[in-house]
Amino acid sequence: MRNTFAESSMYKANTGNKMEFLNGPLIYDALIEEKAEILEPFSGVINANDGDKITFKIKNLSKIDDLYYLDKKEKRVRLENVKQENGILEFQITYNRKLGRFIALRLFNKAFASFKIIPKTS
């Protein structure tokens, strides 16, 4: 499989750094179909420790009533502090190491975007 360096869409904020692109969130058809853009976190690799709150901001997401993520046991985990303002959906997820090292967002049972969590270094 070959990596293709994107020049538009959600990566328009990318400064042309190939590593930033390769470390970006894994995006799926549901995100593209919604014409959504992940504003935060820009990287698909998130540094977080157990109990840290991770903030997400997604632009142009029209259907938010069934946005969620699954833990490693395939159970839905609640999004926190959800608010929508000026076309931007903002929410937080409290990272729980026991639930897995990935946060895979889903929208209406379709994969939306995935992020890998790595521990913060002290």
How would you characterize this protein structure?
This protein has 122 residues and is mostly beta strands. Helix content is 8%, strand content 41%. The protein has helices spanning 18-22, 29-33; strands at 26-27, 37-40, 45-47, 53-59, 67-70, 76-77, 80-85, 88-94, 102-107, 110-118. Strands 1, 3, 5, 6, 9 and 10 form a six-stranded mixed beta sheet that branches. A four-stranded antiparallel beta sheet has the order 2-4-8-7, with no helix packed on it.
Describe the structure in brief.
This protein is mainly beta and 122 residues long. The protein contains 2 helices and 10 strands, in the order αβαβββββββββ. 8% of the residues lie in helices and 41% in strands.
Helix-strand blueprint:
Blueprint: H1 18-22, E1 26-27, H2 29-33, E2 37-40, E3 45-47, E4 53-59, E5 67-70, E6 76-77, E7 80-85, E8 88-94, E9 102-107, E10 110-118
Parallel strand pairs: 3-10
Antiparallel strand pairs: 1-10, 2-4, 4-8, 5-6, 5-9, 7-8, 9-10
Keywords:
122 residues, 8% helix, single chain, 2 helices, 41% strand, mainly beta, 6-stranded mixed beta sheet, disordered N terminus, 4-stranded antiparallel beta sheet
* Rg estimate, integer Å: 14 Å
Provide the residue-averaged pLDDT: 82
Q: What is the 3D shape?
A: globular
| Head-to-tail CA distance between termini | 35 Å
| Amount of beta strand | 35-45%
Note poorly predicted spans.
1-11
* Helix segment tally: 2
